[in-house]
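tool_call predict_complex ligand=NAP
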Amino acid sequence: MSTTYRNLIGDRWLPSRSGETFVSVSPANHDDVIGEFASSGAEDVDAAVASAHAAFRPWSLTPAPKRGEILFRVARLLAEHKEELSRLMTREMGKVLPEARGDVQEAIDVAYYMAGEGRRLFGQTVPSEMPDKFAMAIRRPIGVVGIITPWNFPVAIPAWKLFPALICGNTAVLKPASDTPGCLVRFVELLMEGGVPAGVVNVVTGSGAKVGNAIVDHPDVRVISFTGHTETGVEISRRAAETLKRVSLELGGKNPIVIWEDADLDLALDSVVWSAFGTSGQRCTAASRLIVHRAVHDEFVEALRKRVAALVLGDGLEDGTDVGPVINDQAVQKIAAYAAIGRNEAELVIGGEPARDGDLARGSFFQPTIFTEVRPEARIAQEEIFGPVTSVIPVDSWEETVEVVNGVRYGLSTSLFTRDVNLAFRSIRDFDSGLGYVNHGTIGAEAHLPFGGVKATGNGHREVGQAALDFFSEWKSVYIDYSGKLQRAQIDMSFVDEVD
Ligand code: NAP
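tool_result ok
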């Protein structure tokens, strides 16, 4: 018997208008059904947008410090329910439990950070160019925000988008990925328990083609915040242009870790295992390229092979599991297809096959995989595989390294391991990415700095930090003239003569 979950429209949990449903199952064990969810369509989106639209004015008029107090309560509730939410995430999405806890912790961190912004939401005050005149710019809420999220960070990413949107005074309609609706529904239940008023947050589950498109097309949705594949982002951007929406796209990555000849190899190994195989390689920041100085290539690859051979695959809820499943069987097939391409393009060091031994056969698992002697232009070095597969590209010089790092369409996260401070700073200057690390893997972003990438990783916006406030608010410039007479800016300049 599986539990049935519904859409949240206003303060009511409702089935889809069509009555249709879909199930979410655990990728570690397909017999473990998380629940049955509303398979919704455009009519359900209409109802959710109407609810968010009606809630917009009262919410936007609620003083921001009061909105912040609600987010503080939400943060505390998320912290109280961290273990429960993390276990649900591991069951539904597959990442090992310590990583799921990190995912929920990111949501808690953003909730606290944005709650504090309720007492800031800084604007700008500037001196006016005219006498007896006051000039400032204030932030205004925009309206209904459509939030469309992927499955790989099923709590953190909705939180990254929703909390800044709410503190700025917007209301929202959320559509989770169809692989992880359970995590979002539980997350939103906690928000409601924390005191988010009815209608401020609405949830519609269902497919990208039906629910996602209906949100993007809806004229009363003013903003779209999307994270997912680059191709989906391009399609969304094109559709959203019809109604002149503001759109933030956080898209794919092909992130390199550079291991220079003077690197601390033990530290680099720890970081590579974490960055390439954590979350089974299904992070936008996953280290899918290892650019290794030829002088240390053989030693490094052999040490990495040994470390990877010792990784334990399994259910992420079990102690001792290092690598969980990938999201579903289609993902296994896609990764296997790339492994086959890799065999023709490069040298397989380890892995390369779906993993089906014993209990693994119940779910969707793929062996952690390393290729070496990969040419920078090879498909496995260029395309986002989104699985536990990494490509070693040997290099001989710094110039070649910069060329290889930047020679992909994406630009999310880059990392360099070196003891040379000059090279460290050059990497920050020369590597094309939105996140740059030195002596640290490609993952580890914190909630109070902007997150996002360049090139095909996005369209120039950033998540979290102060940057998120800029995306979710509209600037209004305000001039208050207390001179009591008409003062024409740039024309009436007599006061300048008076000063002279
Ligand atoms: P996806 O297939 O693009 O789906 C993302 C979301 O969009 C899902 O909710 C999906 O719904 C929905 N969707 C699909 N087609 C749509 C359409 N035509 N219109 C509107 N919505 C649509 O991506 P994913 O597989 O969930 O996530 C993996 C990707 O996300 C990778 O490329 C990864 O790099 C990227 N990512 C980027 C970041 C970042 O910050 N840059 C962070 C995490 C992940 P369904 O689930 O119902 O199909």
